[in-house]
Amino acid sequence: MRVLGVDPGLTRCGVGVVEGVAGRPLTMVGVGVVRTPPDADLGHRLVAIEQGIERWLDEHRPEFVAVERVFSQHNVRTVMGTAQASAVAMLCASRRGIPVALHTPSEVKAAVTGSGRADKAQVGAMVTRLLRLDAPPKPADAADALALAICHIWRAPAQNRLQQAVAAHRTLKGRTA
User: Fold this and answer.
1) pLDDT score recorded for residue 174
2) For 115, which of 47, 78, 155, 177 is 20 to 30 Å away at the CA?
3) Are the C-beta atoms of residues 116 and 109 closer than 8 Å to each other?
4) The pLDDT value given to residue 162
């Protein structure tokens, strides 16, 4: 399974591609950041993010895209920009028919470190260890994008089984009604 993780942001949008399956060693395929100038017009920034993500999709051909689920923060401007960048990533993937999964920051932290309250340094350290890298990816947005991809690879099999069980239950329930 090849997953593009996206840590959305208007100024720095982290992107990272990981390949592998749950229970086996994972491989980092690529990592980086799509940057936009803070003083640029919002529309131009969103187009730049779209173009950057499209390049990553073209180059790495992921089977899935995992995006950080936007959660409420104290700074409304920050959460709005994050939500807009997140929507661009989801649009780019959906336009190509690539399934998109949303994971909360605490889900990602718990999957990668074992604690949903881990800090950025702990996430970076575990990403480094799990992907057998020489050093944590910089900036933290890049490490977070890799963590999202890892989280999806590890969680997808269980989520798929759960969805299949729910669908089977609905089918069975429909027959007895």
Assistant:
1) 75
2) 78
3) yes
4) 61
Compute the distance between CA of residue 58 and CA of residue 6 in angstroms, rounded to an integer. 15
Q: Which residues does the annotation mark as catalytic?
A: 7, 68, 141
What is the 3-class SS of the chain, one letter each residue? CEEEEEECCCCEEEEEEEECCCCCCCEEEEEEEEECCCCCCHHHHHHHHHHHHHHHHHHHCCCEEEEECCCCCCCHHHHHHHHHHHHHHHHHHHHCCCCEEEECHHHHHHHHHCCCCCCHHHHHHHHHHHCCCCCCCCCHHHHHHHHHHHHHHHHHHHHHHHHHHHHHHHHHHHHHC
Residues of the chain with pLDDT under 70: 73, 157-165, 167, 175-177
Identify the CA nearest to 93 among candidates 136, 64, 60: 64
Q: How far is CA 177 from CA 164, 169, 171, in A?
A: 20, 12, 10
From CA 17, how far away is CA 36, in angstroms rounded? 20
pTM score: 0.89
